[in-house]
Structures are given as structure tokens and as C-alpha cells.
Amino acid sequence: MRPLLFACILMASGAFVRSVTTTVAPPANLKHMGHGHSQEGTVDCDSSEEESDDEALKRHEIVKAQARAAAHARMVALGLKPKPTLTPRPAVEVEKQAQARAAGERQRIAVVEARTAQRDGESLSITPVKDYLTREKRQEDDDEEEDEFSKLIERPEPCDFGTGEELRACGWVNTPNITAARSIPWVASRGDDALFRGGPRTDHTENNGAGGYIYFETSREPPRQPPILPGGVTTESNNIDVGGGAAAGSVSGVAQPDEPVNDFESAVLATRNISATGPQGFCISFFYAIEGLSVDRLRVIVMDVNTFENITVWESDDNFDGKWQKGEVAYTYGWPHQIWFEGIPKRAKDPSRRFRGYVALDDIVFDKMEEAGDNCLGHCTFEGGFCGWTNADTGDDFNWDQGRGSQSFLTGPQRDYSSFGKDEKTGGYIYIDSQYPRRPQDKAQLISPTLKATGVNNPICMRFATHMFGNGVGTLRVLTRIEGSEEPPKTLWEMTGEATNQWYLAQLQVASTEPIQLVLEATVGANSLGNIAIDNISFRQGTCPISPQTAARNSGDCNFEEDTCGWMNPHPADGYDDFDWARQYSYGLNGPPLDHTRKRADARGGSKAWLISPKFSTDAAPRCMAFYYYMFERTIDPSGPSLGSLRVHVLHHPLDGTKKPLTTIWRLNNHQGHRWLMARSPIRMPDGLPVSEPYQVVIEGIWGHGRVGYVAVDDISFFDGDCTTFPEKAAAVPGECSFERDMCGWQNATGILSKEQAAAQALQLSKQIVQIRPSNLIGRGGISPRASLTWRLASTVSRPANLQDHTYRAPTGYIFFDIFNQNSVQNPILRSTVVQSIDSEPDRCVSFWFAPFGRGESSTLTLFRIEPEITEEDTRMILWKFTSRRSDTIRPDWRYGQVKILADKPFRIQFEGEANDGGFALDDITFYNGDCETRPATAVVLPAEPV
Fold first, then answer.
1. In angstroms, rounded to a whole number, what is the distance separating the alpha carbons of residues 610 and 11?
2. Residue 847: what are its φ and ψ, rounded to 5°?
3. What total of structural domains would you count in the chain?
4. Rounded Cα–Cα distance for residues 150 and 239 (Å)
5. Helix %, strand %, coil % for the chain, to 5?
6. 822 within a domain of the structure (yes/no)
7. pTM for this one?
8. What is the DSSP string of 432-498?
9. What CATH number corresponds to the domain at position 847?
10. What burial class does residue 299 get, using C-beta atoms within 10 Å of its C-beta: 0-12 exposed, 13-18 middle, 19+ buried?
11. pLDDT in tens, 411-430
């Protein structure tokens, strides 16, 4: 029971607990599992068991560290100055220094405990790698050996965490974070064990199940009672498990019931102590995978080994459902330090914490910046040079220069971005000097290394810090150009004028199908007080809206932090929608975690809200829109999800002034999860080609029948490229329709008859009498015989009784026909728009939902494939036929239908009803690529022949 023995030592020292007991008896069911064996028993603090040398050393180190912490704490409490200690960076105030060192001592104690436990634990590596994890005992002369953990290394070795049975940790170690209530261990594993242990199915290095990686599980099922052992001590594991089971434990204090509850938890993976980087710095490249509802974020931290001050240099909360993503960060640091990978799960009280999730790492590499190659290309802290950025030889008037701090009170930064507001002595940046001999409108250009093509679906986000303080500040631009091309550079980001004397973070999105260069262009303003500075340039995969919003202008990008960036709710007189989008903040656990929009409580099922973008001019290049969405329904109705719909349309403004319908380019219905999800869609014309005329983008929210839920959007951005739709299921298909607003181009074809057919029908109609049938139709005065021959949209005053919309259970939002004619059978016909063929996929599948109703002996719904051009001699291929008998139920049911269609050339589809006392409703017609079986089975038509 080694962990309980540790508890006795801690209790004897009195550092972590409020009361001391003489005996610690574990619960009867407490069992410590380690490497295939278990131990049970009771440990007495007065046990006379002989103490080993290792145990004595461990006790000595812990007690000594605790004594130092207690001494510092007492001196701080008494207002005394602690004994001066030589540190690389003297504190500004003695009291502040003492408090910081006291906190550092507490962190050091936690680290000592964890590492002492690792020395005593069994060997964790099953391969003879040469690091501290493989040592089974310390050398005999510990007094002459420097602590392995205190040795400075130049940089960690590259690590792919092994493969198969030879997993390894490469010197990385689990380290406790004293600000967390609980530290979670990282575990080395492989994809073959993912379903059993957790983590991704494949590693990044080998892309198979045998390759190794390191991960931590984020889910946690809270116990019914807090697992507090007598004396307020709990056991935790701090070793890195490489597949052999639980490792030796250590102890940490837990909060007493009367203390504030800290539910923050983290998993820290740390390097050994690294020496100062030098001005060039290091590039850390790695691959990470995040999946699951219980994950919060992953971040990279530089931790000072003397003061335990820390700086977060990289962070991501993007959840790509377990797909490996590349991370890169360039950094410099002038003192001994560690690099921490800290994974953070959701808070313990968050309901999402019960769900499985993980954060995984693979292929971690440390490179010197000058040797990094394609890793960290374009990244720069400007401490030791320009990192491959070069001043333009032609096309500008002067050069960018490096600086450490302004020589003027009236312009320029006091120090670089990383040390701004701190007593730091290191750090530099680049800037333009607007002093003589510069004149207004002089410009300086700095050109990046050539960046690789991003592709159409993988834009990168450029981030940097900028300082624009001074009465004469001009303009700062970020432009993109294709190397060797004669086309003028394109402006991606632009800001003009003075800001306050602060550094500001900026970002923009970069996308190109060809290798490109970025240009930082600064222009001198009205006078000499116009220095412009830039620092800490970095790049990362993924989309991002332009920031700050004042740099976005009419780009359409928006993060909704300050305003709506030109996106507007339409005027009520326009009649486009029923209620408005609103810019909001967090709604706690049941709503979006950040400030976004949601539906208002005074709207009704089927109500629509539009948000319209600024007007975009014609652009020959294809464009893509990216955003994040949140569609959460807290309670699901027994009839099914009923949150509503989120759609994106293109509103065309033809140059000839004609009116064109909206083109839907992206849509999703109902609940999608309790988290923010990424979306992407190409901007297209109705024919599927890139937009060739002025347009606006419309984000439409449609409220379903549900009353408790949220639909929100955030971080809208636009970039060049003919991207694909993401998620794939959100792709809008020509010809599909959910009949919420209109018939989407579907037309009634009942009136398209020959002269003889039209004359015969007119004669028949003249003999009929209008009859009222309120039991089957909600409406005033029933339905006229002529109206009964058509398919029409359901409305609040005319629709089948008790039939809700299928899409999200609203009262309206579908199409139907209802025949009441005892003298003859009627045949209402509904035809689609032309559906284009796809060269790569000759087979298509049409799917739809249908609902029969009525008292007639039989009603029939038939689906035909017809040629694009409508003529009297149309050849109709019958594909699907369903007959309903006596469907006069109190509440009609929606049924699913689908059938394969040959799509080797353009076609239309046609629904034809047949009834004399009843009808059918249709909803959610769409198309999929590929083959499919006919459903329901009773609708199969064999063989399919022309009729």
C-alpha cells in the first residue's frame, strides 16, 4: 500500500492537512492495482517496518521541500522579507517576489512528489530507451549525482511514441498542476487498443492501429460520494502508463468541505528542463487529435523552472472528431524552462463530462528555427532576425527594421509584445520609423517566405500582434501575391489611423491553390509620429474571421464581438421574415458557451429569421464561406426532434434588374449536438457555377415546434477557393425541397394537358358541386374542385387535420393534395426542376417523406422519371408506386420513401396522385449520390417500363 504510506509521511509533516491522525485505515473495498497485482491492508503510521534507502531519501526530499514552503509562507504572512535568493530575473517588489516564490515552492513540492514516486515505481518503458523512465533504481552515490530532472538539455528528442509492443515516452513526464483540483495522467497507447483504453483508432506516424501516440481520457463519471480518504488525502497516479496497467501512486491534498470547490482539472505532459533558447528560438511541431463532448482544449505552455511563471504560446479548442491536425509554434525564452502540453477537459459539473472524449499527441519535434525547414515556415518572434521575411528590393520607399523599444513618448511601443506590461529585459519586434527623411505616403514592404498552397478546403489563419500608436499613424496592410505573377497583390487585411498605446492581436484567413507570398505593407501618415510595429507572427490550420473587426470592412467576416459587421436583419416592410437575430452572450450550460445569437422566445413554430450580409461585388474567382454553428435542443419531443432549421442562401442581384429566386447552398435541420461545429460552403449560382453577379448571403433560421433550444452562428469568414461543403450532409442539392417557404421550383403539371384532355376536364368540372369536408381538412368552406386538382403548400387555414410538418414538427411546411370527388378519380401532378447528371455517379437516389390520408377505398402515389423537356409525347418511366386504403386516421403518419434513378443524363421526376376521397402530403424531398433499395418494399415496381 505504497500510496497510503506516503499519506502517513505527509500527515506527520502536517503540511497539507488540517488535522493529524495516528492511523490511516483505508476503506474495506479500496484496492491499489499495479502491473497485474493488487494489495490490500491497513497502514499504521507507527509501523516499525524497516525503511529502505529510497524511502528515506524520498521522505527527506518531501519534508525539506515542505519546510521551505512553510518558511516562505510564514515570512510572507508576517510581512518579513525572505532571504534574498539569486534568480535570473529580480522581482520588482520584494513582497510580490516572496508571494511568487511561495507559489513556486508549492508547485515544486508537487513536482518533487510526482517525480519521487516515479523513481520508486517500477520501470514504465518496455523498451531500453535511454531516459529517466527506464531506470529501476538510482545510482548508489546519490550525493554526487545531479538530479536527473534538474539537468538542462538543449532540446527534447523527436518522439513518435513507438509502435506495437515497443511504446515509449521519450522523456516526457506527467506533471501536476497545483491550480487544478485533479491532475489527469497522459497514457502512451496505440490505435489497436483504442476501443478498450480510449484514444484515436490510428496514430499519425504510421496511420495504422499499431503505431503509438500519447493521450488522456477526458470523460469522468462523478462518484456518488466524494472519494476523500481519512485526513483529507487522496491517491493519484503520476507516471506515464505505456500499456502495463496502473502505476505507483502519489498523494495530493483535496479541498475540505468548507473550502470553495475547485472543479478545474488538467493533464500536463512536461519536458525535462530546457536551457535558454537563444534569440533564434525553437520551433515545436506536433500532431494532435481531439474528439468527444467532454474535451475543452489543448494548450502549449512555457513554464519557468525557477519562478514557475508560465506563458501560453499556443491553444486550440477545435474539435475535428479525432482527425489528426498539425500544430506549430515558434518561441524564444531566455531562462531554463519546460514545455508543457496541457489538456483540459470540461468542468467536472458540466453534464458533457460524462461523455467519452480524448486529446492525443504524436510526432512531437523540437527544431532550431534556422533548421526547421517547412516547420514553422513564416513564424517569427523577431528576437534574432527576420526568420526568412525580407524587405522588398523594388516597389517601396524604405525598409522595415528591428527594435527593442521606442525612443519617443509619442509613438511606437515601449517594448515587444511578449514582455509588454512585464519587467522583462528581453524581446524585440519589427517596425517602420516615420521620422525624417520619411514623407507622407512613403511605404515599406516586408515579404514572407513562399508558403505552400493551402488547397480549396484547408485555409490557414495568420495571427500577429500590431502596435499603431501615434498622431501620424498611416495604414498597415497584409497583401497576398503569387510569386512571379504579373497580377497585382490582393489586400486581405487593412487598418488605418491611430490606436491606443497597446499591442493588439490581429488575424486573417489565407487560402490559395498556388504557392503564395504575403506582404506586410506599412504607409507613413500625416506626420513623423507614425511608427507602426509588428511582432509574433504565427500560422495555424483552420478558418478565422478577420480581426479586429475594423479591419474587415465589407469583407463579410465577423466574430460579433463588437457589432454585426454590416450583417443586418431585414426591414419588417420587406416581408422576408417574421422575427430577428440578436447578438447575445453566454447562456450557461444549456446554451452556447460564448456570445452568439439565438432564437427569440416570442416567435412561433415555422417562423423565420433572416440575417443578410453586406453586398458583394462580382468576383471571377470562386468564393467559399466558413462559419461555426450551434444547434442544440435540450429536450426532444416524443414525436422526434423539432428544433428547426439553419440555412444559408445566396440572394442574387442580376445586373439586368430581373428577380431571381434564392439559391440554397447549405442547410441542416434540428439538433446537431451540444457544442460548436464548423461549417463550410461554396458560393454558387442556381446552375451550380460560381457567382458572376452582385449578391448577398442570407443566413436563415427557421423555428420548429420545439420550445427549448438554441440556433447560433459565429466566426463567419470568406476566402478564395471552390471548396466542398462541410459537413457533407449539409450540401444543398438542386431539386430538393422541404417546402417551408415555397415550392423550390417544383410545379403543378395538372394543367399541362392536350386540347382534348382540357376540354374533357372542363366539362367534368362544370357538372361537379362544391362540397365541404371539415372532418378531413382545416379550412373555411372546404376546397373547390379546381383547387383540389393541384398540389399546394400547407397553411394555418388550409391543411390536413392533425398533420405536422415532418422537418421539425411545425404546423406548416409541407405540400399536399386533397381530393373529394365522388364522380371520378383525379390525378394531380407535381414536377421537379431539371436535375443535372453527374459524370462520376450515374446512379442517384431520391428520398422523400409521404403521408396518406382520407376515407377513400384506395389512393395512389406514383413516382416517374421523365425527360427534361415537357411535351405531349413525354416518355414516363414508372419507378415507385404506393397504394393506401382507408387512411382516415385521427393523426396521419409520415412514412419514408426512396428509389434509385438513372442519372446518366439530365432528368425530371414527377409525383402523380390518384384519388377520389383522400390525398397525400409530401415533405423533405432530396437526392443522394449512389444506388439505394426501394422503400417501402410495397412500393417496388417490377419491371420498370415506359408508360
1. 64
2. -125, 155
3. 4
4. 18
5. 10, 35, 55
6. yes
7. 0.75
8. E--STT--TT-EEEEEPPPBPP--SS--EEEEEEEE--STT--EEEEEEE-TT--SPPEEEEEEES-
9. 2.60.120.200
10. middle
11. 999 999 988 767 777 789 99
